[in-house]
């Protein structure tokens, strides 16, 4: 485990903004941190990185407590919080060199990260000439400069066009293959659905769920049965076979709908084969991430951010 936030509590005056927040991120995992405006996401991230002190709980990164051993804990962490910090009057190259020197690195590493974020062609331009999307790319490059094994990104897709967002997603996926863990906060639910392995949803300072994306969007009942949609050549006959064998099933719009555990899928396929029914497809019914988010937050009217 690379990151573990344990029961983090934070007050601003008498107002409790975080209550026993616990989050974990493993090696090679992309975790999406979601919540409505004012849910406490940025506060949690700042505490994670030692920019704010918690009133209770502990953050451990790479086995080191952020509070007790700050330098060791943050040694292999890179991040962008709220917006990339850079000198507009300097070139992208000079900004990256400044970061590299702080970590005892040089030009070779600067060129590596510039290529990763596709900034090589504009590296010598002054940052004041950069578009918002290019500034965001430069911020990601700064976060990568020290070869982190934990990357923390707060709204990393701000200002990026669809091509830039896909390139960022592909880059993060490439990093996770080397064991890097990614903690990302974003308001783009559709993008988070494409990017993340795990989602942590926070509402009013409380973590309401942390699940894999698959578990979050897949419909299950109390017996761990999932809803499946089946397309077969003889739906009425198939419906009878399913119900005769104890499966809950219905037929609507030329498709069968049934409840089954993952383990019982093979039995259903066998039943159809024995009875001469051709099955063209069988797929688990899934919610959108937006539906899952609204369900977890009880239909929060706050804007997602």
Characterization of this structure:
- The chain has 305 residues and is α/β, with parallel strands linked by helices.
- The chain folds into 2 domains: 215 residues, P-loop containing nucleotide triphosphate hydrolases (Rossmann fold, 3-Layer(aba) Sandwich); 59 residues, 2-Layer Sandwich (Alpha-Beta Plaits).
- Helices cover 33% and strands 28% of the residues.
- The chain contains 11 helices and 14 strands.
- The strands form 3 sheets. It has a 6-stranded mixed beta sheet, with helices on both faces. The protein has a 4-stranded antiparallel beta sheet with strand order 2-1-4-5. Strands 12-13-11-14 form a 4-stranded antiparallel beta sheet, covered by helices on one side.
- The protein is elongated.
- 35% of the residues are buried.
- The C terminus is likely disordered.
By oligomeric state, this entry counts as single chain
As residue ranges, the low-confidence spans are 301-305
User: Helix and strand succession?
Assistant: EEEHEEHEHHHEHEHEEHEHEEHEH
What is the molecular shape?
elongated
Biggest sheet statistics:
6 strands, mixed
Structural class: alpha/beta
Overall structural domain count? 2
The CATH homologous superfamily of the largest domain is called P-loop containing nucleotide triphosphate hydrolases
**How many distinct helices?**
11
Our measurement of the CA-to-CA distance between the termini, rounded to an integer number of angstroms, reads 26 Å
């Amino acid at each position: 485990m690379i990151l573990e936030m344990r029961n983090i509590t934070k007050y601003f005056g008498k107002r409790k903004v975080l209550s026993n927040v616990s989050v974990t991120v493993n090696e090679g995992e992309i975790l999406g941190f979601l919540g409505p405006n004012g849910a406490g996401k940025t506060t949690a991230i700042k505490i994670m990185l030692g920019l704010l002190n918690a009133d209770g709980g502990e953050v451990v990164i790479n086995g080191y407590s952020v509070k007790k051993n700050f330098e060791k804990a943050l040694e292999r962490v890179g991040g962008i919080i709220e917006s990339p910090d850079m000198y507009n009057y300097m070139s992208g190259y000079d900004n990256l060199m400044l970061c590299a020197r702080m970590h005892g690195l040089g030009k070779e590493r600067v060129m590596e990260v510039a290529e990763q974020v596709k900034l090589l062609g504009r590296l010598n331009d002054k940052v004041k000439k950069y578009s918002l999307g290019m500034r965001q790319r430069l911020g990601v490059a700064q976060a990568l400069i020290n070869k982190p094994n934990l990357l923390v990104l707060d709204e990393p897709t701000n200002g990026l066009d669809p091509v830039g967002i896909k390139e960022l997603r592909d880059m993060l996926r490439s990093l996770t293959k080397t064991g890097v863990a990614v903690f990302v906060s974003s308001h783009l639910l559709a993008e988070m659905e494409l990017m993340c392995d795990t989602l942590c949803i926070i509402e009013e300072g409380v973590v309401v769920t942390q699940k894999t994306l698959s578990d979050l969007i897949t419909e299950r009942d109390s017996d761990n049965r999932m809803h499946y949609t089946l397309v077969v050549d003889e739906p009425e006959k198939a419906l009878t076979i399913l119900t005769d064998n104890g499966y809950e099933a219905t037929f609507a719009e030329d498709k069968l709908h049934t409840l089954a555990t993952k383990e019982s899928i093979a039995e259903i396929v066998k039943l159809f084969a024995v009875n001469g029914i051709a099955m063209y497809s069988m797929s688990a019914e899934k919610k959108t991430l937006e539906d899952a988010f609204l369900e977890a937050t009880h239909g929060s009217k706050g804007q997602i951010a």
